[in-house]
From TrEMBL:
It comes from Asanoa hainanensis. This is Inner membrane protein YedI. Residues 320-337 have a biased composition (Low complexity). It comes from the Bacteria. InterPro entries: YedI (IPR008526). Residues 309-337 are annotated as: Disordered. Keywords: Membrane, Transmembrane, Transmembrane helix.
Amino acid sequence: MSAGLAALLDDVAVLARAAAASIDDVGLAAAKAGSKAAGVVIDDAAVTPQYVRGLAASRELPIIKRIALGSLRNKFLIILPVILVLSQFLPVLLTPLLMLGGAYLCYEGAEKVWAKIAHHDAHGEAAERQPDEKTLVSGAIRTDLILSAEIMVISLNEVADESFVARLTILVIVAIAMTVLVYGAVGLIVKMDDVGLRLSQLPGAAVARFGRGLVKAMPRVLAVLTIVGTAAMLWVGGHILLVGADELGLHAVYEAVHHLEEAAHDATGALGGVVGWLVNTLASAIVGLIVGALIVALMSVTFHRAKSTDKAEHTDAGTEQEPAAATETPTVADPKA
């Protein structure tokens, strides 16, 4: 009896070690998959703060919380089921879908650039108006959907050889970790001015001076992040399109960018890695800007025609009503009365 119990305990110990090793493997795979998506995480953290610019300080964290919850819904209710099903049954559709998302990012980035160029005079009036929180949150969640899809697909590619259960577990870990990381960082960024204000009220000249400097610096930091966020949309969107086109057999543009990156890498010695990455990033952003500008132009023409048609119909309807109004006989007082 004791021998049987000992054998049972040995079996349990073996299973426990196997389970622990499996957990370690999942953790390592999740860390590896998440690290590959680090660039998109940085972009997401740079893009999001622009959505709370102009809001009252008391509304910043609640808005970020709503965006974060929307991000989790994006990941768990839309992205995760779709990419797992597609990876299992129709993996060929993952790249085209991701490219559509990349094109949308290019459009958003190019639209912001065009708005800055064409409507800079009206920007001050727009800044004075209180932003519509519902619109801000909806826009942020739409953008997050694309960036989150990029994070999840990159992560999926890193664990494509794992079993379905392992893939699911790893992607759930990545989804939660990335959401906490991104929106935790965003919350910290947008509340740094409040931290500076609190520090400026503490005793100690050095601490107070640092707090005042932080308060003065944060508007500039947020302005820079807005620019970085727009550039990130173009970079990520362009990079998605470049890689996706290469995977679909359209190699020319991707190979041209790759050759430029290699040439820059070889020509700059010890700094080759950084310079090569910058060249690739700049080329991706240019591609994103070109594609985004084409989409903006197409959308502008389409909506301009739609608005012109609506305006013409409205004018015609008004013209048709005028004769009827003219036939009405005005009431004139009887002079005999």
